Q: What sequence folds into this?
């Protein structure tokens, strides 16, 4: 009998391109701007977010591929594309996406007008409005503008990253002089939309700043008339690379932050209404390549649309939601340590307030029995209450260590300033490994108690950021488990001593750490489920994350699927795995949940010999996505959820609700496209609404669980493809 040998599956048929998958995610964000279930101004916010996302994509991912293409690098992506091929594919997809953004803005603008919110052209305004605008322009706008001539004696000025400018073709009004090009860079910190006086109550009217600059051109260039103008916007390469041999990491970053302003151009968006000769002049003088130029028939820089989201119209915004504070801590008179000592507490942001994290650090800062505080800071705010509490603790004489990650992209400058403030207060500031970003979120409090020293530890899936904690879904675990405290202490010691954990121990007792062990541990756990399925035993994997890119993890999931393991993944953004491919991934389902809150928590559950959900399941929360960078180049933590009530809260509430969501979810198809459910008139199930509307779910921390969680029922709704 001849053995049948399966042909290997080509890379392109096994994996989705990372960059194209991200663009698909941004399409889903844009689609929320068209979602009639959202209030009108919230839909405008989704359009703004989609535009801002695309800017960052150009500045980092696209810019990096362009540099590789210029250098002739032929390294293939996961699915087998060269940098040049990826650049071409991205440009084709982006063109369609940006056309969709303009069409969406046109639709929203009409609907806003029907709701008495108008963005008007100067030509639509009456004399009284123009009189008011002229006074406003002269007193509030003109003083901060810097009109510049561009001629042989005056070179084209530098336009910074994401900078706007209005260019004019100018000629002398009286003749006899030289024509020239005039340029007016738009001020970075001025509102893009100028609000006009209300004609009547409830009517909001705006005019764009660039249209005012064009209209009042003679005030800016007296003695000249305009023969045409165009608006343009620059996007520059803003990635930062640190040389391994850089001795002074701080000084290196300060230099690179200044260089970011002057990065190579990757995109120039130009108003298509401008004269062709003027557009060509701008592109030539600014040094743009032909492929960098994109003509825009519509609005440039849509991220600024967030400036039209006014509190004057609460009826067009999401109903305000007030996060709950864990009842168990209230019952303990606000004493976080007493509540945590009694039993682990899980806080589910944003449904439960970030204030509990702040209170935990503040209480530690003011408690005379607390002798040491250790804290990681990846992203936060300049006026962070966490930083304020750490400074207070240091001033009280406590031993305070802050691990500040200055390599947090686009937050480097903020983190440098925070580090200096902390150091001035006496905090021991550590900057982590040069080769690895410290992305894990950990707070460790060491307190002197009657029976000796006790540790209180906070592990989080999200940043210590009071603003994003209101809109990101994340988990925060508070525990007094001695082993968890010892693991947190060892983690800090590894980083502050700038050394890797020794290969032969002492190993961490419960927490799994990357880049040293997490990937291997996850693959080992996936293989355990594969072996169970092959032996005819119950098996299963549920996981929730932002991105799935790591090839070794994907290959392990494919093998588990081929053995029959049921695998359900919630991947908000990038997913390079192809689900539902016969003979490769038939048992894998992937969905993306995009809605009011940004799904940010990372959770993984392994059946461990029983059918999910079960009390025997191995459940973990983590700061890490399943990406090469998280598993190989970042310091991350995978934290076990062991206390039964917390275990049920994560597995039976949070995971089941997310898997059951059909209002804000998209199912991924084998070809990388996504299909959204068309909700019928009877409505669907929203995980976000479920947690907002059910205070008993988490209002008492881990004390309450859902008695009958939503069932994982098959979908029965019509679908539409996007």
A:
């Amino acid at each position: 009998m001849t053995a049948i040998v399966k042909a290997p599956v080509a890379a392109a048929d096994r994996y989705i391109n990372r960059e194209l998958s991200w663009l698909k995610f941004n399409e889903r964000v844009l689609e929320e701007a068209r979602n009639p279930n959202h209030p009108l101004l919230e839909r405008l916010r989704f359009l703004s977010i989609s535009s801002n996302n695309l800017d960052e994509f150009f500045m980092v991912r696209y810019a990096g591929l362009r540099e590789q293409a210029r250098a002739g690098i032929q390294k293939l992506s996961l699915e087998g594309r060269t940098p040049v091929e990826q650049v071409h594919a991205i440009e084709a997809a982006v063109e369609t996406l940006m056309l969709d953004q303009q069409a969406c803005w046109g639709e929203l603008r009409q609907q806003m007008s029907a709701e008495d919110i108008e963005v008007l052209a100067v030509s639509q305004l009456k004399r009284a409005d123009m009189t008011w605008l002229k006074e406003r322009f002269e007193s509030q706008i003109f003083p901060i503008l810097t009109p510049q001539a561009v001629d042989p004696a005056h070179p084209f000025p530098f336009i910074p990253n994401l900078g706007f400018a209005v260019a004019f073709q100018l000629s002398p009004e009286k003749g006899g002089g030289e024509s020239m090009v005039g340029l007016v860079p738009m001020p970075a910190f001025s509102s893009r939309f100028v609000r006009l006086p209300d004609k009547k109550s409830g009517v909001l009217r705006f005019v764009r700043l660039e249209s005012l600059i064009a209209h009042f051109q003679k005030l800016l260039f007296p003695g000249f008339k305009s023969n045409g103008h165009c608006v343009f916007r620059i996007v520059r390469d803003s990635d930062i690379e640190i040389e391994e041999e850089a001795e002074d990491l701080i000084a290196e970053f300060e230099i690179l932050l200044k260089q970011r302003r002057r990065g190579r151009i990757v995109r120039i968006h130009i108003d298509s209404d401008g004269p062709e000769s003027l557009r060509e002049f701008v592109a030539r003088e600014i040094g743009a390549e032909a492929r960098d130029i994109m003509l825009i028939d519509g609005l440039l820089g849509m991220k600024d649309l967030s400036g039209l989201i006014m509190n004057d119209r609460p009826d067009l915004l999401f109903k305000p939601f007030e996060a709950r504070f864990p009842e168990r801590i209230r019952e303990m008179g606000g004493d976080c340590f007493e509540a945590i000592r009694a039993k682990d507490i899980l806080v589910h942001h944003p449904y439960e307030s970030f204030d509990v994290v702040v209170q935990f650090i503040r209480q530690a800062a003011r408690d005379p029995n607390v002798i040491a505080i250790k804290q990681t800071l990846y992203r936060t705010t300049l006026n962070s209450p966490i930083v304020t509490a750490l400074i207070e603790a240091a001033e009280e004489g406590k031993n305070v260590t802050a691990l500040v990650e200055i390599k947090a992209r686009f937050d480097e400058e903020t983190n440098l300033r925070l580090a200096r403030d902390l150091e001035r207060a006496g905090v021991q500031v550590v900057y982590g490994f040069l080769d690895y970003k410290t992305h894990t979120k950990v707070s460790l409090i060491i307190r002197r108690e009657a029976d000796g020293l006790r540790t209180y530890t906070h592990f989080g899936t999200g940043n210590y950021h009071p603003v994003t904690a209101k809109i990101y879904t994340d988990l925060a675990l508070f525990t007094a488990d001695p082993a968890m405290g010892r693991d947190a202490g060892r983690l800090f010691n590894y980083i502050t001593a700038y050394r890797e954990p020794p290969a032969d121990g002492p190993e961490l007792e419960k927490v799994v750490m990357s880049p040293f062990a997490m990937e291997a541990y996850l693959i080992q756990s996936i293989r355990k489920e594969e072996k169970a399925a092959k032996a005819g035993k119950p098996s299963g994997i549920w996981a929730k994350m932002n991105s799935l890119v790591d090839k070794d993890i994907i290959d392990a999931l494919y093998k588990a699927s081929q053995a029959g393991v049921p695998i359900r993944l919630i991947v908000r953004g990038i997913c390079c795995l192809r689900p539902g491919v016969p003979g490769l991934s038939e048992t894998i389902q992937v969905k993306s949940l995009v809605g009011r809150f940004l799904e940010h928590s990372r959770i993984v559950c392994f059946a461990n010999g029983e059918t999910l959900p079960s009390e025997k399941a191995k459940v973990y929360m983590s700061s890490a996505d399943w990406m090469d960078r998280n598993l190989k180049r970042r310091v991350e933590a995978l934290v076990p959820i062991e206390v039964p009530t917390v275990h049920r809260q994560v597995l039976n509430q949070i995971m089941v609700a997310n898997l059951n969501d059909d209002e804000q979810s998209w199912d991924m198809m084998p070809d990388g496209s996504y299909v959204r459910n068309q909700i019928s008139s009877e409505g669907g199930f929203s995980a976000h609404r479920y947690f907002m509307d059910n205070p008993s779910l988490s209002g008492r921390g881990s004390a309450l669980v859902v008695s009958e969680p939503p069932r994982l029922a098959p979908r029965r709704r019509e679908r539409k493809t996007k």
